[in-house]
Amino acid sequence: MPIARTPEPPYYAVIFTNQRAEGDKGYGKMAERMEELARGEPGYLGIEGARTAEGFGITVSYWASEEAIVAWKANMEHRSAQAAGKKTWYEGYSIRIAKVERAYGFARGPAA
Amino acid sequence: MPIARTPEPPYYAVIFTNQRAEGDKGYGKMAERMEELARGEPGYLGIEGARTAEGFGITVSYWASEEAIVAWKANMEHRSAQAAGKKTWYEGYSIRIAKVERAYGFARGPAA
Lengths: 112, 112
Description:
homodimer, alpha+beta
């Protein structure tokens, strides 16, 4: 998963940090489906994710507005995954909604 | 690295996403030292990080104010690492400064 190509700020970020519970129990399939769903939502700008071998993960999704985040949270299929997540897939998680105010970066090579 | 125990919003997040270049070249030692330095800065609230086997990483640090982030960016030892980072450790990175407006979470077990 590469660095997301987001527009100039301001825009919004949902910082989802979590500790996976043991066993897949359909997690991989669900995570793939949620990413696919998010990409199709209005106001979706991009997503970035990484996980350690110990199951600690960070997913940051980027959105054009707070309204887009509220709509994504309320998506019926997403809601069902949220409910199952607490019981099945995570030891714990934290969700932070943040307004990106400044951004800068660097990329090596011809695409810089 | 566990989920950071941050206070009630508002506070700030620095979302640092990056693709590592090949070879350690002192990266591990530097990263450890930068985390140690950050923890000692005024306004530091916490840090979370994860990296994939392919070298894509996300580090999110949390700060009490924008001023704290500016001071951390200007820290002399940190500035030296920033300069070396572009040349030595990263294929590319993105830094996003964001104001956390809402947060919620879940933790299993007696500490919940």
